[in-house]
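F.,

This is the one I mentioned.
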């Protein structure tokens, strides 16, 4: 994953983790490797000029993607909606259900069962599923846009199981980037605490829990309370959500809350 390139110089993005920065400004892209059927990707950018970014602009066609005239034959994007379901888009080959060519549709994302380029937008920090019809050999997609300049950005957790991602185009360390917030549930194991699950190279998940500062026997461990720890461990993790990737947030409580993510680079 992880090449970040910025275009036309204006102001420096310092401290970009696992990213190569060329020229310096707030407009750029990163690449994400697609090597499995389902990959959790992220829009770490906003639209050029600010605001929610159009799906067409965030995920433009790249070599290796599969086009089709329906979700059954094309690569898809699935965006979690407010109810926990998904809004699904497919990469069009420019034809409708009868095989007739539709001008301006080829290589564009279209909503399921429609034959016009979607105008849907997503907020920076949106995570989504990328469904690949063909992923061997692996290929790279480009995620493009403008890096947020705001000092902080909101990460709402409004579902029991929620897709999350960094609103900024960098890796997001769990313990620096997603701090304990009122509404989170602490515990001494993944079964009793909020979890974050980060997809790994095999398509499985590395799981972390919000610690209450105690080990399996209930003994207090200094510096652990309110920190994320890897499953079955009792030390604060150094793990991060990679740039270009999203993750799952599993909420034990029933109260919605919002995490405030601090911009991890200087402008």
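My design for it:
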């Amino acid at each position: 994953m992880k090449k970040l390139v910025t275009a036309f110089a204006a102001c420096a993005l310092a401290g970009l983790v696992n990213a190569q920065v060329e020229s310096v400004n707030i407009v750029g892209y990163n690449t994400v490797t697609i090597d499995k059927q389902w990959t959790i990707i992220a829009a770490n950018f906003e639209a050029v000029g600010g605001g929610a970014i159009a799906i067409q602009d965030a995920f433009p066609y790249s070599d290796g993607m599969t086009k089709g005239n329906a979700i059954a034959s094309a690569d898809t994007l699935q965006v979690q909606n407010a109810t926990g379901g998904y809004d699904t888009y497919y990469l069009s080959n420019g034809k409708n259900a009868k095989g007739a060519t539709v001008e301006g549709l080829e290589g564009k994302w279209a909503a399921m069962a429609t034959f016009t380029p979607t105008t849907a937008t997503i907020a920076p920090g949106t995570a989504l599923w990328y469904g690949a019809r063909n992923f061997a050999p692996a290929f790279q997609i480009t995620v493009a846009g403008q890096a947020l300049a705001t000092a902080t950005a909101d990460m709402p957790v409004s579902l029991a199981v929620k897709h999350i991602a960094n609103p900024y185009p960098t890796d997001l360390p769990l313990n620096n980037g997603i701090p304990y917030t009122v509404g989170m549930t602490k515990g001494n194991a993944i079964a009793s605490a909020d979890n974050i699950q980060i997809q790994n190279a095999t398509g499985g998940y590395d799981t972390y829990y919000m610690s209450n500062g105690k080990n399996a026997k209930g003994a207090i461990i200094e510096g652990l309370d309110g920190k994320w720890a890897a499953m079955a461990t009792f030390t604060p993790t150094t793990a991060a959500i990679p740039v270009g990737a999203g993750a799952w947030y599993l909420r034990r409580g029933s109260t919605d809350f919002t995490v405030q993510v601090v911009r991890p680079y200087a402008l």
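The longest helix spans residues 55-58.

Talk soon.
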